[in-house]
């Protein structure tokens, strides 16, 4: 009997503004064990120096960079753009597994709830951050 997981379609959405580049290799390896990662997108303001490590990795792993400029100082629209794109894929593409890579807790609970409510599998990759309040 054929392995059913090899037929799963996986979508990867990375909030590069709020995720460490150093985990990319292990994330991609884990997703490859689930199926074919057919949608690979990373969101961020690629003009920012702290995202330089991501730029090379995007090309190496065929990840589509999505430019999102900071429209207001101290705020970014990356998470909103990623959430809208993920919802578009959720309702318009044949994707079985969604992987969200972000340490931003503002939007991830809502997005994860939408994915699970649509009966799709979910992989959430996050980095524990210290609270500086």
Q: Can you tag this structure with a few keywords?
A:
globular, 4 helices, alpha/beta
In short:
This protein is α/β, with parallel strands linked by helices. It has helices at residues 24-34, 52-60, 78-92, 108-117; strands spanning 8-15, 35-44, 64-67, 97-101, 121-125. Strand 2, helix 2 and strand 3 (64-67) form a beta-alpha-beta unit.
Please outline the helices and strands.
Blueprint: E1 8-15, H1 24-34, E2 35-44, H2 52-60, E3 64-67, H3 78-92, E4 97-101, H4 108-117, E5 121-125
Parallel strand pairs: 1-2, 1-4, 2-3, 4-5
List the secondary-structure elements in sequence, H or E.
Answer: EHEHEHEHE
Tally of individual helices: 4
Q: Summarize the amount of helix as a percent range.
A: 25-40%
- Outline type: globular
Distance between the termini: 54 Å
Give the low-confidence spans. none
Largest sheet: 5 strands, parallel
Q: What does the radius of gyration come to? A: 15 Å
Number of strands: 5
Structural class: alpha/beta
Please state how the strands of the largest beta sheet are arranged side by side: 3-2-1-4-5
Structure description:
With 133 residues, this protein is of the alpha/beta class. Helix content is 34%, strand content 24%. The protein has a 5-stranded parallel sheet, sandwiched between helices. Strand 1 (8-15), helix 1 and strand 2 form a beta-alpha-beta unit. It is globular, with a radius of gyration of 15 Å. The mean pLDDT is 86.
């Amino acid at each position: 009997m054929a392995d059913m997981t090899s037929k799963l379609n996986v979508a990867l959405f990375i909030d590069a503004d709020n995720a460490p580049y150093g985990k990319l290799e292990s994330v991609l390896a884990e997703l490859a064990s689930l199926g074919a990662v057919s949608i690979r997108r990373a969101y961020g303001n690629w003009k920012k120096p702290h995202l330089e490590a991501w730029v090379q990795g995007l090309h190496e792993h065929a990840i589509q960079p999505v430019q999102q400029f900071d429209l207001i100082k101290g705020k970014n629209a990356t998470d909103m753009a990623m959430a809208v794109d993920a919802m578009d894929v959720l309702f318009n593409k044949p994707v079985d597994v969604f992987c969200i890579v972000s340490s931003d807790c503002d939007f991830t609970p809502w997005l994860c709830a939408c994915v699970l409510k649509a009966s799709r599998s979910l992989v959430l990759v996050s980095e524990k951050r210290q609270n500086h309040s």
